[in-house]
């Protein structure tokens, strides 16, 4: 599952987990774990220097300042972390019971080219005004900052060609539940 910021991924994933029995794996959470691994720390130290290390751990703020102001450095960081994150995701999946349905949530699923590893791609979306309002409310930010954050995201139109299912959360969870239950039924019956 993927989707832009404030399009309802968390609500959708929570429903899939709590009500439909799916195991959820967050690539972001796995990424945080990967950044704590000694081999990752050493690769990042080698590439970016000691200024991104604090107390033997990655200083994510210092690293962020470097990579989010230089696209080439961000690509280099991704080339270090993305394969490790993907490997750990598949290790988690391999350790689950075989009959447990799994959803991997990754905001960067398409950007990273990971869609080729999954048989189903779900993309969340909602009306732009709703997305803007949700983001402002959720993060306590003004409209300009919210628009800036949204504009930095991979556009929905770029995710659309890869989507097996599009989940429009514009009309609230009660309406969205109908779509989610239909998707769950189809996924569970094609296994």
Structure explained in plain terms:
The chain has 191 residues and is mostly helical. It folds into 2 domains: 1-22 and 101-191, P-loop containing nucleotide triphosphate hydrolases (Rossmann fold), CATH 3.40.50.300; 27-100, 3-Layer(aba) Sandwich (Rossmann fold), CATH 3.40.50. 55% of the residues lie in helices and 12% in strands. The protein has 9 helices and 7 strands, in the order βαβααββααββαααβα. It has helices at residues 9-20, 27-34, 38-48, 60-67, 71-94, 128-139, 143-151, 156-159, 173-189; strands at 2-3, 23-26, 53-54, 57-58, 102-105, 122-125, 165-168. Strand 3 (53-54) and strand 4 form a beta hairpin. The longest helix has 24 residues, at 71-94. The radius of gyration is 18 Å and the shape is globular.
């Amino acid at each position: 599952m993927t989707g832009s910021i404030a399009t309802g991924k968390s609500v959708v994933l929570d429903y899939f987990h709590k009500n439909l029995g799916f195991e959820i794996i967050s690539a972001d959470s796995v990424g945080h774990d990967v950044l704590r691994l000694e081999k990752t720390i050493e690769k990042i130290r080698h590439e970016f220097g000691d200024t991104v290390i604090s107390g033997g751990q990655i200083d994510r703020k210092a690293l962020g300042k470097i990579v989010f102001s230089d696209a080439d450095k961000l690509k280099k960081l991704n080339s270090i972390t993305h394969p490790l994150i993907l490997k750990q995701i598949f290790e988690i999946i391999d350790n689950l019971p075989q009959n447990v349905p799994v959803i991997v949530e990754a905001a960067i699923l398409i950007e990273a080219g990971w869609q080729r590893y999954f048989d189903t791609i779900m993309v969340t979306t909602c009306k732009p005004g709703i997305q803007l309002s949700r983001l402002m409310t959720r993060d306590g930010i003004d409209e300009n900052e919210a628009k800036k954050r949204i504009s930095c995201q991979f556009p929905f139109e770029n995710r659309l060609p890869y989507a097996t299912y599009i989940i429009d959360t514009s009309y609230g969870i009660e309406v969205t539940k109908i779509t989610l239950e239909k998707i769950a039924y189809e996924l569970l019956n094609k296994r």
